[in-house]
Amino acid sequence: MNEPIIRQHRQPNQIRPITITPNYLPHAEGSVLIECGNTRVICTASVEENVPGFLRGQGLGWVTAEYGMLPRSTGSRMRREAAAGKQSGRTQEIQRLIGRSLRAVVDRSKLGERQILIDCDVITADGGTRTASITGAFVALQLAINGLIKQGLIAENPITEQVAAVSVGVVNGVALLDLDYPEDSGCDSDVNVVMTASGKIVEVQGTAEGATFSIDELNTLLKLAEHGIKELLDHQQHALQSQAA
Amino acid sequence: MNEPIIRQHRQPNQIRPITITPNYLPHAEGSVLIECGNTRVICTASVEENVPGFLRGQGLGWVTAEYGMLPRSTGSRMRREAAAGKQSGRTQEIQRLIGRSLRAVVDRSKLGERQILIDCDVITADGGTRTASITGAFVALQLAINGLIKQGLIAENPITEQVAAVSVGVVNGVALLDLDYPEDSGCDSDVNVVMTASGKIVEVQGTAEGATFSIDELNTLLKLAEHGIKELLDHQQHALQSQAA
Amino acid sequence: MNEPIIRQHRQPNQIRPITITPNYLPHAEGSVLIECGNTRVICTASVEENVPGFLRGQGLGWVTAEYGMLPRSTGSRMRREAAAGKQSGRTQEIQRLIGRSLRAVVDRSKLGERQILIDCDVITADGGTRTASITGAFVALQLAINGLIKQGLIAENPITEQVAAVSVGVVNGVALLDLDYPEDSGCDSDVNVVMTASGKIVEVQGTAEGATFSIDELNTLLKLAEHGIKELLDHQQHALQSQAA
Amino acid sequence: MNEPIIRQHRQPNQIRPITITPNYLPHAEGSVLIECGNTRVICTASVEENVPGFLRGQGLGWVTAEYGMLPRSTGSRMRREAAAGKQSGRTQEIQRLIGRSLRAVVDRSKLGERQILIDCDVITADGGTRTASITGAFVALQLAINGLIKQGLIAENPITEQVAAVSVGVVNGVALLDLDYPEDSGCDSDVNVVMTASGKIVEVQGTAEGATFSIDELNTLLKLAEHGIKELLDHQQHALQSQAA
Amino acid sequence: MNEPIIRQHRQPNQIRPITITPNYLPHAEGSVLIECGNTRVICTASVEENVPGFLRGQGLGWVTAEYGMLPRSTGSRMRREAAAGKQSGRTQEIQRLIGRSLRAVVDRSKLGERQILIDCDVITADGGTRTASITGAFVALQLAINGLIKQGLIAENPITEQVAAVSVGVVNGVALLDLDYPEDSGCDSDVNVVMTASGKIVEVQGTAEGATFSIDELNTLLKLAEHGIKELLDHQQHALQSQAA
Amino acid sequence: MNEPIIRQHRQPNQIRPITITPNYLPHAEGSVLIECGNTRVICTASVEENVPGFLRGQGLGWVTAEYGMLPRSTGSRMRREAAAGKQSGRTQEIQRLIGRSLRAVVDRSKLGERQILIDCDVITADGGTRTASITGAFVALQLAINGLIKQGLIAENPITEQVAAVSVGVVNGVALLDLDYPEDSGCDSDVNVVMTASGKIVEVQGTAEGATFSIDELNTLLKLAEHGIKELLDHQQHALQSQAA
């Protein structure tokens, strides 16, 4: 952390190479492998024909998410949460964020009384696993919903618009888009932005444990995020269109 | 949720009545009862002369937080987390937020190898418990540190500046400061802002499960939050000065 | 513990100053803050319109209790049970005692098939938290039942008589009423007595890990307890009458 | 429970047939099978050459206890606590009682810095399992200590006197000694008494969920208990003497 | 482990002395105490008039098993699983094996929609606790089923044939039947065989953590097991016939 | 299950197409993706420079394994074990089997006092996940050990010979090699065989919940397994040689 981190192979406003492989797993109603640089996440969407108790009888659907990391997705092995007997605070924070982000673009009355469970499992981690999870999970969710429409189970697409996410942060005084792990660790401030195709914010989570930031600096970072998210939305589109024919 | 919520006894840019009672508990090194309208939280700061394993031998201190709610702090009784055998995702999310917010204004090298444990326990909840916790916990932390200075255990105040927090949100199209529980539940979007005395953002967490918001709208909310936080910082000052003589 | 403990500001047969603040919390059907010297406990009674499975269909109600301590209610911070993932043996022992004590004065057939959940949360602890909990919980229970009667949900008061509790013990050979924490720690023997307004024993729990006691000594302690409980019953009466008008 | 329970094959002041089989298990340092009527409990004492952290370096020993029931010790199968993932409140209450009862007759400075772990496992339950556990555990403890003395590990017997336990209660208005399960279930009030050979009380736990009792009635029950405990002490003596030769 | 282990009081193809005491516990529908040398296990069969959710409405019964060890069944005290809060991997492996072994000889359609829960609790352990559990559990199961037939609850015996189990292994190059604990610990390879009266294998689990074995060696061990199991089947017969009159 | 299962695209003695991709993950000391037909498992080997407490100071290494399945590796979504708060009995059984299988071919004195943790995470499941895990984990283990040798941390290869695993079973009376999920579910009997390059058995686990099998039938199945394992050993060789240059 002592050496100043200087991004060498990307421009500050450039996202990492993205690959979204749709229908990556054979069993799930929707699934993708999303790769953002060296971060790789498998996202699946599973349809269940029931809703949690608190929603029963209201004609509304539900979307919720779980998140996990393979023990050796990281540089040193992490303890397996199933063996530890509980999910960490970080895991819970992330899976709640994914769930809220997707529900923001779903018209739950059009989904009917069914639940879509999103699973995001990190295969390798190099920063930005929560934002990659949201970006990939949106595609898995749309694929699962396409299946429901094809089967005639739902009449109309309940998804109101696309949603994607990216991190932005200030590293050594420079505003950077789409932080990788060394950048994130050496970061002064770090903001995760979840945004829709129409440029509306769904979630913004800015943390400045290292160095606080002004409202102006936040606006600079949000613009950078908006720029990156546009590209991510294109990648989502391409992945979905490749399956549509 | 059907009736439009119209704030009646406060201006949209007005915070609720605040009372901060310092040294509320006899045993803790620092403690306050903070009351924001009908939300009441006991915040304590406990000093321990050791640090977590990952920090040992580095000459750095640590500040961390735990959060809880009395089962009957809410309108219908919540299950006691100790009986359930685990803390909910929401609890973990909140206590991580409190910890990060306070660490952002602490120079951990001046604290020495000791740990300050913050406990925020909600006695009654009427919205804004996490922001009230941060605002109150700052005072408890400063009181505990004052004690360490008085005892000659630390030479210099490790606190770099004051920090406080407030929620802002759009309800029925109107931007409101310091949401109470009915407003929060009926809210289109909800942003928690943690800010320092110098107007720098420590954390911003905006959620728009109901209705997304634009960057411009976020800026309006941030300005409103800044205004409210100034008042909260004054209340912190008064509480601390009342103990200083 | 080496210095002999001599009670200085109270007579051996004198209880600590008592304050019972009824309706302390806005949401609970019944609630009090009880203060016995420096011991402060929030007691609430929550009404639920169902009973545990083993009682269903029998026309009988149920009363049960949970107990907790704020982490910094004590001189050195206790680990939060919700974080530890389980309630200690001591906690379970105490909450079972509170539940039994209250059920002893409730005619469960008059309560109907509903459950009253008692929560006792210790804000500051200076000895006698379990007996203060019982004394305070009785008032919270009666307040909740008064509400049920006022709403016409139950026809007749199911409470058969008042119940309160106090500790007694031998310290340095002297029988003392209502032990505070230093007395309790330095105690040869320690008896908790739960007694009704008619002078009947509901629970007696005597422990002599330090020094065993004879049947005669037990009788001396029971007389002392009876004397203290009479005063506690008066305090309960006053608190209830203040709400009755 | 509707039929009045009338004790038929025993006098009200008569304990059930007792058998104590010493050295029942081959591996434990001390062990007994105690049978009180149809209640059968295996009690073992295991010596460990260390003490819990809070006692280290003080030259004091420790005695603690655990309690369990075989799933089919009871009329209908109980859930296995190991499968449930936690010990019930009742189990914890009982094992804490057993531990305190034994520590009351051990001079821990003579035991040296070692720990004796008592295990009481109920094979069949017909009332009075906690009192049978204490009565049996005392013999297992003495056997383990005899072994330590024989090996020269401790110089002097740390046991100050014998201890045993019995239940007494009022059933249909009649004071009965040593309640079996039907009596205990039909009981108006129920008192467990732990007493030493010199007639001193170690623990008294009286519960009157059904019908409260006066101080006079308690004294009647204590006398009955004292009478039963004398017999139990004799059985302990015989069991120990049979191994002494 | 350094001294070669030489079996002294038994022939290599000789099982340990077996005693099966039927109806050992008063409450269970079926129960035995099985003693194989110094290994003693209480096996019970409890009948429940329901089946797990996944079987409901299919007209099929279920047989499942749980396994436990008393803390002091072993040379040094094992931690109580109920206190540890979970069953070890070994425990789960064994109880799954017992369940599968018994289900293999039960025609579940003849059992009707009811469940038989087997509990195997080890009182003293000297090797072979899982095979003794299976051998004993079969008798407990048959006793419980006999009761169901006697009550007219099932028409036909659902048990298709007897099943028993034994361990075999190579110790210092010699194939041994029915290993005790020292033999098992010093063992090159260890095979548990579950076999029916008609000589069919139900389960074979061979482990060679120490020294691998060839297919020929496995066959030698299987023959040895077959020989031992015949004797165990006789013991089961005698135990059952003693109860049949 | 009603339709007879007839293997169509493979001979009964033919394994599924195998692909082993070495160094599949960037961070682990050793890793592979193993694909056996539609079963895909990521196996990693992580080196830690310490051993579990029970091995400290003996100069011996340790190899242990953990196993998990992605929630949507299966046809219907499985509950995430981290969310459930515990690993199932099946998971524990499998990870113990993987650990024993690998330790059988490791000379732990040559490994030194270090531990290799194997993680096997199933991405998609179509039968044989435990045997694929063992076959893949062996390669990951060898890759990690090659790294230790290259770094000069160990002098000599501690692996004594290759080990691989396959399942065999009788389906509709036909002995089949390498069962896929429909075959496994419709199976009369199912045997997992772990075998070394020299043809020695490390583990054999045969289960006949459906239909028991004779010793002769077991021998037929073992021969079939031996045949399949030879091919698996070749695949392991090729994967390792591709990395050796």
UniProtKB/TrEMBL annotation, chains A, B, C, D, E, F:
| Exoribonuclease phosphorolytic domain boundaries | 14-144, 162-226
Fetch the Pfam families from UniProt: RNase_PH, RNase_PH_C
Q: Where does phosphate bind?
A: 90, 128-130
Identify the SUPFAM superfamilies for this entry.
Ribonuclease PH domain 2-like, Ribosomal protein S5 domain 2-like
- InterPro entries listed in its UniProt record: ExoRNase_PH_dom1, ExoRNase_PH_dom2, ExoRNase_PH_dom2_sf, PNPase/RNase_PH_dom_sf, Ribosomal_Su5_D2-typ_SF, RNase_PH, RNase_PH_bac-type
What catalytic activity does the UniProt entry give for this protein? tRNA(n+1) + phosphate = tRNA(n) + a ribonucleoside 5'-diphosphate
Q: Which UniProt keywords apply?
A: Nucleotidyltransferase, RNA-binding, rRNA processing, Transferase, tRNA processing, tRNA-binding
> What stretch or stretches form a coiled coil here?
none
EC number annotated for this UniProt entry: 2.7.7.56
Describe its assembly.
Homohexameric ring arranged as a trimer of dimers.
Q: Which family does it belong to?
A: Belongs to the RNase PH family.
So what does this one do?
Answer: Phosphorolytic 3'-5' exoribonuclease that plays an important role in tRNA 3'-end maturation. Removes nucleotide residues following the 3'-CCA terminus of tRNAs; can also add nucleotides to the ends of RNA molecules by using nucleoside diphosphates as substrates, but this may not be physiologically important. Probably plays a role in initiation of 16S rRNA degradation (leading to ribosome degradation) during starvation.
Name of the molecule in the record: Ribonuclease PH
Species this chain originates from: Vitreoscilla massiliensis
Higher taxonomy? Bacteria, Pseudomonadati, Pseudomonadota, Betaproteobacteria, Neisseriales
